[in-house]
Amino acid sequence: MELEELCHEKKMQREEIQKLMGQIHRLKSELQDMEAQEVLEAESREQLEDLQDRTAAQKSSKQELETESDHLQQEFHYREDNLVLNKEHICKAE
């Protein structure tokens, strides 16, 4: 009877080992998936930071161009007004 019990216990231990080996394999696979996901997330964060930097630079450039455009429009209107005044002055002088 003792031999039969030992055989049964050995069989139970084998089944437990197989079950644990299956869990280890599954957990290794999950870990690899998580590591791959972590790499993708890091790449995505890097791309996002790059896009944010580029967006900030473009906004700054846009603001500079708008300021320059405003300045040029003011200068244009000033020169246009001077031209009108000069024409009026010339016409009165004739």
UniProtKB/TrEMBL annotation:
Keyword field contains Amino-acid biosynthesis: no
Lineage: superkingdom: Eukaryota
Region (Disordered): 45-73
Entry's localization field: Golgi apparatus membrane
Protein's GO biological process: Golgi organization
Assigned GO CC terms: Golgi membrane
InterPro entries the record matches: Golgin_subfamily_A_member_5 (IPR019177)
Protein name: Golgin subfamily A member 5
Organism listed in the record: Fukomys damarensis
